[in-house]
Amino acid sequence: MFGTIFDEIVQIVHQDYAGCIDKKGWDSPHDYRNKINRLQDQGGLNNDTFVELVEDYLLDFKDLHMSFRATNKAEQSASYVGFTARRYKDRLYIISSTKEDRLKRGDYITALDGISISQLVETHTRRLMETQAERENWSSILTRYETAQVTDQEGQSFTIDLRNYEEKPHEAKYSLKEIAPDTLLLTLTDFMNHHAISSLIDVNSNLLKRCDHLIVDVRINKGGNDLAYFELLSYLFEGDEINLADFTTDRMLTNCTKRNVELRVEFLEKIRHSIQDENTLNQLNAMVSALEENKGEGFVELNSKAIEDSLLIKTKEGPRNVILLTDVYCGSSGDSFVEVCKNSSKVTVIGRPTKGLNDYSNLAVRNWHDEFELWYPTSKLSRVEIGRGMSGKGIIPDLYIPWSKDHIHEDLDLQKAVELIMERNRLFLKF
Description:
Layout: H1 2-15, H2 29-42, H3 47-58, E1 67-70, E2 84-88, E3 91-96, E4 108-112, E5 115-116, H4 117-123, H5 125-128, H6 139-142, E6 147-151, E7 157-161, E8 174-180, E9 183-188, H7 194-203, H8 205-210, E10 213-217, H9 230-236, E11 241-243, E12 252-256, H10 258-271, H11 278-293, E13 298-301, H12 305-310, E14 312-314, E15 321-326, H13 333-341, E16 347-351, E17 360-368, E18 372-381, E19 399-400, H14 412-430
Parallel strand pairs: 9-10, 10-15, 15-16, 16-19
Antiparallel strand pairs: 1-18, 2-3, 3-4, 4-5, 4-6, 6-7, 8-9, 11-14, 12-13, 12-18, 17-18
């Protein structure tokens, strides 16, 4: 079974993956196939080791939008150490601890299994895939070690054995609240639940129209579907109408293989029930039709009158000043949202660059017997062909605020946003 699934994965990344041409020859499938056969002969291959092997194989493509996972959580061993950490210089600072009660925010790790953090950066360069400390993701690396050398906020050092916990599922947060007179804070941790986001915007439409300043926090945004933020765009731009097609010269090329079209249509049909807005439903229908019309045609630019019309958005009265808070934990549709909003004259983006996942996007999901699933992109932006991609760089903010350990106890980004608002208020009053 494992060999058959791996062979299909190789076939997908060589024929259906959006980067199959650009990254031809990057991988070494024969090496991994030999490992699978050897482990199978020795009786040492199970679901967990298979997932680990496939994930390691996919690293060859350097695409954070591609992943392989076990879907049966009951059989999948725990792979979460109970906390998250972010590197600052030669230390890993604890930024959250949801399960591990021996650690607190602000404690820091200086070594894993006696190996210094600087040495570990060199060891795991391939897995980290980043050149800046603030962009690194250490979650999968922490699970590979047994002990951590920790220093708490009082300066006391101690060693803990690293334990595995069941990771708490992502809980979406969509909220809007007033944080100062005429200033609203909108928090969107993903764009997955179109209905919930649309309802939040509709219920608070009068607030959005009347406020002078809006801060949108997408520092943690796990993506989802671009359609989920289209209604919000109406309040973020000036003029009577915007055409999203005007904001880029890039062409979106979709690999319309038979497999990709079938999987993408299946995925789009699943989200249909969460959409009630008629215009958004028209956009979804236009995409499904365009995919089916080009089935089997390989890389094409999906064009139709319906798709072109779906990119026209009527603007509404809204805040005169909008600030987006961004960070590396904002990716996929989060990347897209920030990139689109940067075209608005009343939007300022502050914080750190986003994840930068969208060189290759529009994910398809291949599922095997409800045991494993492969997520992979089916579309690419033409800019990757001339070396102008966003991978490893993300969407650059207008005002960059480097991440430091001070962010752990103070929201320096939000403080800066409020300062900007106060400055603009003073300028506005002068006129």
